[in-house]
Structures are given as structure tokens and as C-alpha cells.
Write a structure and sequence with these properties.
The protein has 72 residues and is of the alpha+beta class. It has two helices and four strands. 29% of the residues lie in helices and 22% in strands.
């Protein structure tokens, strides 16, 4: 499920060398591995919680009223 958050970036550190890796949420949800640009180590990604969280947040946003009524 595509969400409003997929184009937002997350930065995290390589567990081996500490290099700061920045990637979009959408990319992270679609991949299970990333290679550290700093040291080349392969990093296994478990993004199930990230995907679940962004989908739940999107569903909450979808339930927001599309308009409001103003009363005088």
C-alpha cells in the first residue's frame, strides 16, 4: 500500500562502520537488503513494522473529515 509517508526519508547508521545512510520509506518498504556506501557491508532490513506503521497512519489520515462545517 502506497502511503503519504513513502517519499519521506529516514536516516540510520550502519551497524559496522557508523556511516549514516539515508533512504526513503517507500524504498525501504520494498527492499530487504541495503549495501552500506561507507564500508560495503550488506545490511538485512526488516521493515515489516515500518510498513505496518505507515499503513496504519495512512488509514487514520484517510478517516479525517474532508471538510468542516462552520457555524455562526
Amino acid at each position: 500500500m502506497k502511503t503519504l509517508f513513502d517519499d519521506k526519508s529516514i536516516t540510520f547508521k550502519c551497524p559496522k562502520c557508523g556511516y549514516e545512510i539515508t533512504q526513503t520509506i517507500g524504498w525501504l518498504k520494498d527492499h530487504d537488503r541495503i549495501e552500506c556506501p561507507g564500508c560495503g557491508v550488506g545490511i538485512k532490513l526488516d521493515t515489516r513494522d515500518l510498513a505496518r506503521g505507515t499503513e496504519e497512519a495512512q488509514k487514520s489520515l484517510d478517516r479525517f473529515p474532508k471538510s468542516i462545517t462552520i457555524k455562526l
